[in-house]
Amino acid sequence: AAAPPPAPAAAAPAAPAKPIKTAAVSLEELKSIKRVNQAARRKDIARKKEARNDFIQQTLAKWDKSNSGALTFDELKAWLSESSVGGPATDDEVRWIASLANMDKLKDKALAASASVLPQDFPAAAKAWLAYKESKDEIEAVFARFDSDKSGALDKAQLTELLKTLNDGVAPNDSEVDWVMEHADQIGNGKITKPELAMATALWFALVDSDGKEAAPQAAPAAAAAPKPAAAPAPAAPAAPAATPTPQGTTGQPVKATPACGGCSVQ
């Protein structure tokens, strides 16, 4: 008799089911992540606040020789001069920094430019000063060309020549020059000093960009409406210090401020 067929091999045991991974995050996990992020943010804010306070206290301890709790004109000049390249800070530069610190407190330009700088304004003053110094070579080149009497400031005629060059050789009218001069002259001496050059060029390009369609801010009574520019729009310039009224562009957004002078160069 034939041998019986071999028995079929036993089936291999099934592999245990693997858990299915999912990208879903539970509500508790989300809360945990949020708590970690908030803690890190609070820690960063506290660190920056501590560094700011340390900077203020160190500045006062070193430069407040009068123990007034603020920096007088001479003390401010000494502080700025320490970080100045190419010589000590000039009186106009010191007045400019003081005006930036005080323009929200004192509406009179000359008074703001001569007032003491309070501790809470030290960090902003230092930031503005460093940004200005980074643009100093560019500013000096402009003044070498347009400051014909080497006074260290641009009068109306010299400012007109500068704006004409920025305007592709088309001379601006008197109302445009007066408007730029009024708002860029932050220290109130009737001229454009070196640290005010960034403001002057920014205002000019903003005025050209507006094409006369936007009214000047209500905060500037003497310039109820921006004068119509003499030429087609020019490339946008960097912003100038914020507290001085600036014209609005075609988008209706005000020009924002910075002490840097990236648009000061001329061909």
Automatic annotation (TrEMBL):
Lineage: Eukaryota, Cryptophyceae, Cryptomonadales, Hemiselmidaceae, Hemiselmis
Alphabetic keyword roster: Calcium
Residue ranges with Low complexity bias: 218-229, 239-248
Organism, scientific name: Hemiselmis tepida
Family annotation (SUPFAM superfamilies): EF-hand
Record-given protein name: EF-hand domain-containing protein
Keyword Calcium: yes
GO process terms (BP): regulation of cytosolic calcium ion concentration
Start and end residues of each EF-hand domain: 51-86, 134-169
GO CC aspect terms: cytosol; nucleus
Keyword Calcium attached: yes
Region called Disordered, residue ranges: 218-267
Pfam families: EF-hand_7 (PF13499)
InterPro entries in UniProt: Calbindin_Ca-bind (IPR051001), EF-hand-dom_pair (IPR011992), EF_Hand_1_Ca_BS (IPR018247), EF_hand_dom (IPR002048)
Gene Ontology MF term list: calcium ion binding
